[in-house]
Design goal:
Blueprint: E1 2-5, E2 11-16, E3 19-22, E4 29-32, E5 37-39, E6 48-55, E7 58-65, E8 68-77, E9 83-90, E10 99-110, E11 120-130, E12 138-142, E13 145-149, E14 155-159, E15 165-166, E16 175-182, E17 185-192, E18 195-204, E19 210-217, E20 222-229
Antiparallel strand pairs: 1-20, 2-3, 2-11, 3-4, 5-6, 6-7, 7-8, 8-9, 9-10, 10-11, 12-13, 13-14, 15-16, 16-17, 17-18, 18-19, 19-20
């Protein structure tokens, strides 16, 4: 699966005067940038964050949950200050399988005077790579029953037109419901603790070899188009 049209909504953070603030995180994250782990509340995937200034152009963020490492990202700004390249390692899967990759973003706005080069707002481009563990998924349907699973252990079994059912293996995605308006189209609604966080329209090509997914990340206000190819 790849993003053929990533979200155009920027993400923003400021690293200044020894403090890191992510204003587009929900809820907002604000911690000391001293390389030590500090408590962070309200996030499903982590409860601590450590921010380390590697050099004037590079910053590293690491997260833990319950004392266990769940991820880290190293973000480096280009010499001209216009591009941000991020290398990430997601360890949040319950089965321990990591998702690794890189992402490239272009600058939208600069940060305050004197702040770290990574400060400001950035828009993701279509460039970047993600390991298969973060891209591959299995979707199967028998009658009205749909089974979904990923290499990292997230899964559900749901009935189209039926009630929302539990999602296994993803702390930020607790239930899901499905509708099927046509043979080759599936509508998925994702919930977290009863609140809608995302809606997806999946359309299979006539030859059955490609899926186009229109994704609406309601929680973060982002829309994108993803393309998946049958293996």
């Amino acid at each position: 699966m790849k993003a053929s049209a990533p979200s155009t909504k920027p993400f923003a953070s400021v690293l200044n005067d020894g403090t890191y603030t992510c204003s587009t995180c929900i809820p907002v994250v604000k911690v000391a940038a001293d390389g030590e782990f500090h408590p962070v509340a309200g996030h499903a995937y982590y409860d601590e964050m450590a921010v380390t200034i590697v050099d004037p152009m590079t910053v590293r963020r690491a997260t833990r949950k319950g004392g266990k490492p769940v991820g880290d990202t190293t973000a480096t700004v280009s010499a001209d200050g216009k591009t941000l390249t991020s290398a990430f390692n997601d360890l949040s899967a319950a089965n321990g399988i990591p998702v690794t990759g890189t992402g490239v973003s272009t600058r939208v706005t600069t940060g305050p005077s004197g702040s770290h080069a990574s400060s400001g707002s950035w828009r993701q481009t279509s460039e970047g790579q993600v390991s298969d563990s973060g891209l591959v998924f299995t979707l199967a349907q028998v009658g009205k029953v749909v089974t979904y699973s990923t290499p990292t252990g997230t899964s559900y079994v749901a009935t189209t037109g039926g009630p929302a059912v539990a999602v296994v293996g993803d702390p930020g995605w607790t239930t899901v419901s499905l509708k099927q308006p046509s043979l080759n189209t599936l509508h998925e609604t994702d919930y977290f603790e009863g609140k809608v966080i995302g809606k997806y329209i999946m359309t299979i090509s006539p030859d059955g070899k490609m899926m186009t997914m229109n994704a609406n990340d309601i929680k973060y206000g982002r829309t994108s188009t993803l393309i998946a190819y049958k293996q």
